[in-house]
TrEMBL record:
Binding residues annotated for Mg(2+), in chain numbering: 359, 365, 368-369
Protein's UniProt name: Phenylalanine--tRNA ligase beta subunit
Single GO BP term: phenylalanyl-tRNA aminoacylation
Location within or outside the cell: Cytoplasm
Organism of this sequence: Natrarchaeobius chitinivorans
InterPro entries on file: aa-tRNA-synth_II/BPL/LPL (IPR045864), B3/B4_tRNA-bd (IPR005146), DNA-bd_dom_put_sf (IPR009061), Phe-tRNA-ligase_IIc_bsu (IPR045060), Phe-tRNA-synth_IIc_bsu_arc_euk (IPR004531), Phe-tRNA_synthase-like_B3/B4 (IPR020825), Phe_tRNA_ligase_beta2_arc (IPR022918), PheRS_beta_core (IPR041616)
Residue numbers spanned by region Disordered: 1-22, 275-301
Pfam family, one: tRNA_synthFbeta
Lineage: Archaea, Methanobacteriati, Methanobacteriota, Stenosarchaea group, Halobacteria
Enzyme Commission number, as recorded: 6.1.1.20
Biased composition (Polar residues): 276-290
Length: 589
């Protein structure tokens, strides 16, 4: 689990509870879900925290939660932000792999050694968690007085987010005295070598310029010219990434931490070159001729609806509606009572979520907060109303039984990867996603696959079995293989958007394998489960015409059976005939 280092003296100062002893603080922190893991060499608390509460990655965030816990703060607090004076212009040359940017100007911040160290820790912890080690989002913090913005059309100082050549303009990076090009930073600078893999494959590297030149090379390193110190009073915070929502939420957490130090926030205008460069659902945006404009930070609140009955059911206690409202306010939320349901009798709450809470995705997250505010230690344990005995799920029992029968019929049981490539799933077995045949369908693809061999969830099991036969040509025949595994296709009718099913697939490979052999095994399997089997003729590109049939169980078409087409055999370097079948496991219930 990730940890964060918190100075107990600084925590006492920010919470206004100077009288709290260390042991009392540890107990209070545990009530928030922060477990004490020990002390650092400097005497700071080393706390293990739940990775969903990223707002507690700094002492400011922890102190805010404790003030709510103590009742010293209530409800949703949204810091004010002055109108924008600075503009970030996103150029067309920005690498398409990292097109998004956000930012804020922070004025009148009082930085001492402790607060600067806390800010740096927050930056690095956000990099490691929400920023996915800077791959999804990276933070740059600069001394605003060292920036010179170009004159903009509306008179605001402007900086540019652009793409540069690896051997482009030179700048002096942090922890260096030499001017280096971006390419040289990746080769010669320790930090550059650490994060080189994030941008090394780009044709152009991300870079941020002011009127004096390049001062930030995200997500790798900042320039030395704008380095922040304890003498810095005005800051410019910029974040770049692969997703606008992610960097906007990271920015909100930083804004709240700095506002807790008494700083004043000032909005920044983001001008994208075209409307496709910003997320379509970004708040606070307006489209202008030739581009899209955002105003950041986005400190808008969200709402979740949760019913009173569900709160009491989950927590196992009776609560007065006013008590629910009180618990919400003590959690840093706000709850407004409303009548809900078709008959209007059900009591529900519209719960307001503050901008820094990136973890509240479901009404159960709200109930968890209410339970913590009430005090989980104050909940009385009790036995469930219904006693149950653990056992296998019906689907698991069916799967186990079918697997045993397949082994009894002479098949070797396999367990293949559920992920596959488009070529293996479609092209090499002669079908396409648009075909109206068993095994086709629109696939659930992986957005950023780690390998070209695993880019989607397979839509049927037979291609996986053919891959195994292809790799086993050096082994003796016959090879009778079977697998019970997952197959999936996109389906808007499903809540998840994906129709996921378990399939029974089998192949028989030998010098005399034929349709009759496959059907005999399938008939034996169906008799064991007392279902009626029919095999009317059909056509399928993977199988030989005239030697192919549909698998119809109890009057419902659930699969296909036949002899594999010679083209498919040649594609898989197989020199013996192959017959097989595949159908939905649920048909045997």
């Amino acid at each position: 689990m990730p940890t964060v280092d918190i100075d107990p003296d600084e925590l006492r100062e920010l919470t206004g509870r100077e009288e709290k002893r260390d042991e009392e603080l540890k107990e209070d922190l545990f009530g928030l879900g922060l477990e004490f893991e020990g002390r650092t060499e400097e005497g700071a608390f080393e706390l293990e925290f739940a990775p969903d509460r990223l707002d507690r990655l700094s002492v400011e965030g922890v102190a805010r939660s404790m003030r709510y816990q103590y009742g010293d703060a209530r409800g949703v607090h949204v810091p004010s932000a002055n109108s924008p004076e600075w503009t970030i212009v996103v150029d067309d040359s920005v690498p398409e792999e990292r097109p998004y940017v956000t930012g804020v100007v922070v004025r009148d911040v009082d930085l001492d050694e402790e607060s600067l160290e806390s800010l740096i820790q927050l930056q690095e912890k956000l990099h490691a968690t929400m920023g996915r080690k800077r791959a999804k989002g990276a933070i740059g913090i600069h001394d605003l007085t060292m920036l010179k913005g170009s004159a903009a059309t509306e008179g605001n100082p402007t900086i540019e987010y652009v793409g540069v050549e690896p051997d482009g303009d030179r700048f002096v990076p942090l922890d260096s005295d030499a001017e280096l090009t971006p390419g040289e930073v990746l080769e010669d600078h320790p930090t550059g070598r650490t994060y080189a893999d994030l941008v090394s494959e780009y044709e152009r590297y991300p870079a941020i310029y002011d009127d004096l030149g390049l001062f930030s090379f995200p997500p790798v390193i900042n320039g030395r010219r704008t380095e922040v110190s304890t003498d810095s009073r005005d800051l410019f915070v910029e974040m770049t990434g692969t997703d606008q929502w992610t960097i906007d939420k990271m920015l909100n957490i930083v804004c709240y931490a700095l506002a807790a130090r008494g700083a004043t926030l000032e909005e920044v205008t983001i001008e994208y070159a075209d409307s496709e460069s910003a997320n379509a659902d970004s708040n606070g945006s307006r489209t202008q001729s030739g581009g899209r404009e955002l105003v950041r930070p986005d400190l808008s609140t969200k709402t979740k609806t949760v019913s009173h009955d569900r709160i009491e059911t989950i927590l196992g206690i009776d609560l007065d509606p006013d008590e629910v409202v009180d618990l919400a306010e003590r959690s840093g939320l706000e709850a407004e009572k409303r009548d809900g349901g078709d008959d209007g009798d059900e009591l529900v709450y519209e719960v307001t979520i503050p901008p820094y809470r990136v973890d509240v995705l479901h009404p159960l997250d709200v109930i968890d907060d209410l339970g913590r505010a009430y005090g989980f230690n104050d909940l009385e344990p009790k036995y469930p109303d219904v006693g149950t005995v653990g056992g296998r799920h019906e689907r698991s029992r069916l799967e186990r039984s079918v697997r045993e029968q397949l082994v009894g019929l002479g098949f070797e049981d396999l367990l293949n990867f559920h992920m596959i490539s488009e070529a293996e799933n479609y092209d090499r077995v002669g079908i396409s996603p648009d075909d109206d045949v068993f095994g086709a369908g629109e696939p659930a693809t992986i957005k950023e696959p780690y390998s070209e061999d695993y880019t989607m969830l397979r839509t049927w099991v037979t291609p996986s079995l053919m891959m195994v036969l292809e790799r086993n040509t050096h082994r003796a025949y016959p090879q009778d293989l079977a697998e019970i595994g997952v197959a999936a296709v996109l389906d808007d009718a499903e809540n998840t958007g994906v129709d996921e099913r378990r399939r029974v697939g089998a192949v028989l490979a030998s010098h005399d394998a034929g349709y009759e052999d496959a059907k005999a095994r399938l008939q034996a399997l169906c008799r064991r489960f007392d279902v009626d089997l029919e095999t009317p003729p059909t056509e399928h590109p993977t199988y030989i015409p005239g030697r192919t049939a549909s698998v119809v169980v109890d009057g419902e078409e659930v699969g296909v059976i036949g002899e594999i087409h010679p083209k498919v055999l040649v594609e898989h370097d197989l020199e013996v005939p192959v017959a097989g079948f595949e159908f939905d496991l649920a048909a045997l219930r």
